[in-house]
Amino acid sequence: MDNLEQAFNEIIEKDLKVEPRDWMPEKYRANNIRQISQHAHSEVIGMQPEGNWLLRAPSLRAKQVLLAKIQDEAGHGLYLYSVAETLGISRQEMIEQLHSGKAKYSSIFNYPALTWADMGAIGWLVDGAAIVNQVSLQRTSYGPYSRGMVRICKEESFHQRQGYEIMIHMANGTPEQKAMAQDALNRFWEPALMMFGPHDKDSAHTSDSMKWKIKRETNDTLRQKFIDKTVPQIEFLGLEVPDKNCKWNEETGHYDHSPFNWDEFWNVVKGNGPCNAERLEHHKKAHNDNAWVREAAYQYAKKTEGELV
Ligand code: FAQ
């Protein structure tokens, strides 16, 4: 083992942070680029289901809050693209990988947002799941990713409350509103649990990522934390857990759950979910229609800085 590799291993062992200028194994770099760029794509594509409801929000307050939340997601995408850039990939390459299908984004955003209650379910469950995952990632070994997560988690916790507030209103509203809340929960429950990725035994990257402390907890551990935290919130709303086998287990100290429909998960991940085509087309169109903004920014930077950027 040479000195560079030894220095890298020491950083990991001592729980210090790997910084952009440090030497790192190519596989460590590639794994971080993959995860961070996909995380960024998820934040950006994730604006679409909620954007669908901006013009139909039931009050000015609801519209303002939803707009602020969606803008936050755009910001998260930008921090994360910047983090990935410190590893030596350009923004353009990342976008090309998204458009060609080489890079993924979270499966959850390929489901439609059909009712206003879905805005509640997304904020509560999707942001809620994202928080459980990202709180753990605050301790990830790559310094810029870890620091980005600290700020993102603060904003996500506001998003989760925004969603839960909508659910409280709907669940305590008319019988029709309560039914809408239950229907949104039914449709988003399992897809939200699948945000944590395949079971550990089927997860291609977990072993390397745990070794290098990119991931601090496994997919199944985080999923279980989310279930344990969320079931009492469902009960508080007076709604029913969509999974009849979801019961408290005294022995394990966790809620049990039914097996998941992994065929559906992989089908969505492979591009065949209800909204995959629509989400990508929308992104490509927005990217192409706004090419002039990138060109104008480039020309302005050239003029003011006197050099290519
Ligand atoms: N969807 O070996 P693993 C948010 C892929 S942010 C699609 O277990 P890994 C905020 C995986 O990429 C939500 N693909 O992978 C918000 C890999 O394929 P690859 C996003 C998935 O990386 C709220 C293959 O399966 N959060 O919601 C999914 O070790 C509301 C094998 O899987 C993050 O990205 C999936 N659910 O663990 C925004 C957090 N799961 O890459 C707007 C950071 C797995 O070899 C509105 N990411 N795959 O082609 C992570 O923590 C990890 O990447 C995991 C997956 C846990 C997602």
Describe the protein.
This protein has 309 residues and is mostly helical. The chain contains 13 helices and two strands. A two-stranded antiparallel sheet has the order 1-2. Helix 4 packs antiparallel against helix 7, helix 6 packs antiparallel against helix 7 and helix 6 packs antiparallel against helix 10. Phenylacetyl coenzyme A binds next to helix 2, helix 6 and helix 9.
- Which small molecules are bound? Phenylacetyl coenzyme A
Regions with pLDDT < 50 over 5+ consecutive residues?
A: none
Q: Given the structure, what is the number of helices?
A: 13
What percent strand?
A: under 5%
Order of helices and strands: HHHHHHHHHHEEHHH
Q: Mind describing the biggest β-sheet?
A: 2 strands, antiparallel
Q: Measure the end-to-end span.
A: 38 Å
By DSSP, the count of extended strands is 2
Overall radius of gyration: 21 Å
Helix content: 55-70%
Q: Structural class given helices, strands, pairing?
A: mainly alpha
Q: Strands of the biggest beta sheet: in what spatial order?
A: 1-2
Average pLDDT: 97
Oligomer: single chain
User: Overall 3D geometry?
Assistant: globular
Descriptors for this entry?
single chain; 309 residues; mainly alpha; two-stranded antiparallel sheet; 13 helices; binds Phenylacetyl coenzyme A
Provide a short characterization of the protein structure.
The protein is mainly α and 309 residues long. Helix content is 67%, strand content 1%. The chain is globular.
Secondary-structure blueprint of this entry?
Layout: H1 3-13, H2 26-45, H3 47-51, H4 60-85, H5 91-100, H6 116-137, H7 143-171, H8 175-194, H9 206-211, H10 219-237, E1 248-249, E2 254-255, H11 262-272, H12 276-289, H13 291-305
Antiparallel strand pairs: 1-2
The structure holds Phenylacetyl coenzyme A.
Residues 34-35, 38-39, 42-43, 46, 73, 104, 106-107, 122, 126-127, 130, 133, 194-198, 203-206, 209, 219, 269 line the site of Phenylacetyl coenzyme A.
